[in-house]
Amino acid sequence: MSKNFHRDYADSVGHFCQSIPSSLGISAQEIDTYFRACTLCLWAVGGGTGATGGWGGDVTGINQIYTDRQVKFSPAQFDKAISYYQANPHYTVGVPEFFQKLAGADAAAGTTYSRTFAEVQKNLLMLCAAYDGAFSFAESRRITLLYDQLVQCCDEAGVPAAPATPGPGDYLGGAPQPSRDAGKELNDIMNEFSKVLHRDNRRNVYDDFFGAPPLSKNPGAPGDPMSPLPVAGGAPETEKEASAGGPAAPEEREEPRPTLEEALAELDGLIGLDVVKKDVDSLVNLVKVRKLRQERGMKTPDMSFHLVFSGNPGTGKTTVARIIGKVYSALGILSKGHLVEVDRSGLVAGYVGQTAIKTQEVVAKALGGVLFIDEAYTLTPENADKDFGQESIDTILKAMEDHRDDFVVIVAGYATLMPRFIDSNPGLKSRFNKYLYFEDYNGEQLFEIFKGRVDRSDYRLDEAAASAVKDHLQELYEDRDGNFGNARDVRNLFEKIVSAQADRVARLEDPTDEDISTITVEDLKELMDVPLRTAEGEEKECENGVPEDQGPAGGQ
To answer: What is the Cα–Cα distance from 491 to 146, expressed in whole angstroms?
Structure first.
């Protein structure tokens, strides 16, 4: 692999991504992840010697495989990932989802982007195979296998045929030729391949693909997408800046942190959640007394500030977690108190060795604040012994230990499922010993939440509409089942009513301000059963807006 491999890789993948329709939503990071997995799979059969430790490559090489956002393997992570492929020689990297989507789009449009990508993959992997100075037949077979998988996907999808670039068999021939300089030949291949890409030299690929300004003449200057990017926090820096101190990055303006009184007032202002508010008050009192004991030289037992939030969706768990961060910051437990919200998809990757790295990146963003993991029980699915979620849990537990003085984790999920998650690992059980239970909102509280949305959005309910919505929400609460969404259901109802109101107002010839801002019972007919008042003032039940005493002919 040449010393400029990163540039070659980023140039090829970046130009390819620039060429495909943006509507497909395929990111360079998806491609990077796939190429790293392919490279590990390839190097596991490489049989390298010396510096590469018996493999076809090393951690320095794998860390060059990125476009605009570098992901760094540690030596231990690299060894673990490549050892997995070596221990499972029949395991290979499957066809990624983004490629299947690309092939499907090609088949529909008559284009050949997916076949071009297969050529990109083949040529870059041949370059990777020469990293240790040798290109083995085992590596040739592995490249051919990975390439053929993509070609087969194209064939099955019906993608039109396209010219192919030379493959590994064209350079190795039918018998081993150890005297050949595989590295030089593969660099020549890349030179030929660049012609296939038809790069326009008047433009820089990064301008369009990454939305960045033209590269500065000063490498590593702000805005330069080729400058190294941080993985675990800190500002990007070039090698020269790292050794010489470099120019200081502009300081980000921090928002003023709220006082304890302001944070608790925000909590008290939330509708319902009486039990949660009481528990938070007790926690604050415990911390205050603990600090007093420390100041007076008394012994203070170790205390865990990590929390378990249990309850149904829409009960305000994320909002309370954000306030907890502010409370902890005001009490001096956290230096920042910000919230980083994530779920399984933000922590667990689809390839071996990637989950720990992905989780470390999330942890790095949350240091000094709160890491809020929603639906945490999905990290420990039942009957999934080899699930990557456990790797994420282990990484988080290590971070909780390493940064115990400035890092808090709050896990959340259904009350019936969270105990299984906590009991799945002794480390979790010992660190999460404080539980806050979020009860469902009752009908009256749901109506208060609805009125809050109405007021904040500059609408108003007329009397009949207010009564109908209140009755509907009370019935929704009383008939709730496992799909009950609490405040989420209120939000959905409000959005539907606003849409219905807009349809009604749009039909008016010259609507007044009051027409535009008022929600009437007419806007509810398609959404709920509402009582309509007759001329005599009597209430009659409506179903879908039709009074029960009116037949199909419409009445009297």
So the answer is: 47
The H-or-E segment that residue 412 falls in is strand 408-413
pLDDT digits (tens, 9 = 90+) for 78-102: 888 888 777 777 777 888 988 999 9
Per DSSP, the three-state class of 518 is: strand
Residue at token pair 């433009």:
203
Query: Torsion angle, CA of 173/179/181/182, rounded to 10 degrees?
Result: 40
Answer yes or no: is 35 within a domain: yes
pLDDT, residue 173, reads: 52
Task: Specify which residues 379 forms β-bridges with.
Answer: none
Any domain includes 178? yes
Looking at the structure, tell me whether residues 473 and 350 fall in a common domain.
Answer: no
- Does residue 454 share a domain with residue 424? no
Count of domains forming the chain: 3
| CATH code of residue 501 | 1.10.8.60
Same domain assignment for residues 421 and 286: yes
Spatial CA neighbour of 467 closest among 374, 532, 390:
532
pLDDT tens across 390-408, in order? 889 999 999 999 898 899 9
Residue whose token pair is 């849409």: 499
Strand partners, 156: none
Q: Which residues of the chain have pLDDT under 50?
A: 1-2, 49-50, 52, 174-180, 182, 192-252, 532-556
Q: Are residues 411 and 538 in the same domain?
A: no
* Residue 311 and residue 305 in contact, taking contact as beta carbons nearer than 8 Å: no
Place of tokens 């007759």: 534
Domain carrying residue 83: 5-229
Q: Residue 437 phi/psi, 5° resolution?
A: -100, 130
Helix, strand, coil: what percent of the chain each, to 5?
50, 5, 40
